[in-house]
Design a protein that fits this description.
Blueprint (H helix, E strand, L loop, with lengths): L3 E3 L5 H15 L6 H12 L2 E3 L2
């Protein structure tokens, strides 16, 4: 990885499916950027910058 290290035990395809699900659930919600980001973080765990 470049500057971001993955800290998830999910496969990449499972991660993408989780993100798609979050986006579908919040698609009609105006101004949902922060809730979407929080839901994605809840689903995937954290991503940390590596030195």
């Amino acid at each position: 990885m470049n500057e971001v290290g993955r800290h998830s035990t999910m496969s990449e395809s499972d991660e993408l499916a989780a993100v798609r699900q979050v986006l579908l659930e919040r698609a009609e919600e105006p101004g949902a950027l922060l809730p979407i980001l929080h839901d994605v973080q809840d689903a995937l765990g954290t991503y940390r910058r590596t030195p």
